[in-house]
Structure formats: C-alpha cells, structure tokens
Design a protein that fits this description.
By secondary structure, the protein is an alpha/beta fold. It is 28% helix and 16% strand. Helix 1 (23-37) packs across helix 2 (96-112) and helix 3 packs across helix 4.
Length: 198
C-alpha cells in the first residue's frame, strides 16, 4: 500500500510503502508492549512465610476435631495463601519481524485516516512553548486532538512537552502503543527520508 504524504515546510512529498493494517497484529504487539510494562510485584505469603508458632495447635487424638498440625495452614484465618501471586516478570519475546510489521501497520493506520503529518522543520528557535503553539495553530493543530510528536530536535521537544495535548518522544522511542493511543502523529520527515521523493 503506497501512501503519499505532503511535507509541511517544503515542496516535496514522501511516498511510504506500508502494509495493510491488521487488527490481530496490532493487538499482538500492543499486548506484548503492555506485558513488558507490568511491574509484577504482587506477592502473598505461603504457609512457609507466615510468622507464628510451629507447635501443634491441639492433640492429634481425643478432641473429636480434625487433625491439624499448624495454625499457618491456608485453611485458617491468618494462615498462608495457597497458590497466590508472587513477584514475576510478565514480559515475553515477540519476533522482531512481528514488531517491525506492527509499527509499519500502526503508521499505515494513521496514514489511511489522514492523521500522519510529516514536517521538514519546526519554527522553534528558543525552545519556548509559545513558539510551538504558534507553529501548531498556523498549521491547524489547536489542541482538539491528542498528538504524538516524534522529533530528534531537543528544542522542539522542550517547547512542546508542557502541552497537555502533546506527547513527545525521540524517533528511537516510536512505538505501536503510543501511535494508536494518539489521534494524530506528527514526525520529522527526516525519519522517513530514505523513501522520500523530491
């Protein structure tokens, strides 16, 4: 699927050859990303971890009650938990080809909707928020959409990071989850420079 995108700030266009978006692949990549982010710190105490006496709680015979040896058994209130959660890593390996395909499909989904914008250069010289706001309003971005701004220009990232409707990251951090949870993607044209047509 070839997509042609105008580059803001220049006369050239960028032609991207992207795959057709597939929900199953995007879901797989997002699930993998979110699994890696899980802290995995949930923990419970087994009967071995509960602090308490190890004495037999009452005689084996003669009471008419069931046989018990420890107050720390899961059957008692205050005892250990059987099969409860323990700290673990929820991350798993996803093939690199699937990760790359997912990223290309996320870009394709935004390009299909007309929500992918490429920029030659931002008019930001001092890293001030008002400079970015002026540039954004001049190009029709007024804060009504949640924007993911991907640029390697430190001044632009500094200028935009204070705005509640802009999520900022460098090009190396571009990922499927952040693309899909933002309504519009604005990126440096240089990131896609290899596929640009003058």
């Amino acid at each position: 699927m070839a997509v042609t995108i105008d580059v803001i700030g220049s006369e050239r266009k960028v032609v991207l050859d992207l795959p057709e978006p597939k929900e199953a692949v995007l879901h797989e990549v997002v699930a993998w990303q979110l699994s890696k982010r899980r802290r995995g710190t949930a923990a419970t105490k087994t009967r071995a971890n509960v602090v308490g006496s190890t004495a037999k709680i009452y005689p084996q015979k003669g009471t008419g009650r069931a046989r018990h040896g420890s107050r720390k058994a899961p059957i008692f209130v205050g005892g250990g938990t059987a099969f409860g959660p323990h700290p673990r890593d929820y991350g798993y390996t996803l093939p690199k080809r699937v990760r790359r395909l997912g990223l290309e499909m996320a870009l394709a989904a935004r390009a299909q909707d007309g929500k992918l914008t490429l920029v030659e250069a931002f008019d930001v010289r001092e890293g001030k928020t008002k400079e970015f706001v002026t540039w954004a309003r001049a190009h029709g971005f007024d804060g009504s959409e949640r924007i993911l701004l991907v640029t390697d220009d430190e001044l632009v990232r500094r200028a935009a990071r204070n705005l509640p409707w802009v999520n900022v990251m460098p090009s190396r951090g571009l990922n499927v989850y952040d693309i899909l949870r933002s309504e519009r993607l604005i990126a440096d044209a240089a990131i896609f420079g290899e596929e640009a047509d003058a």
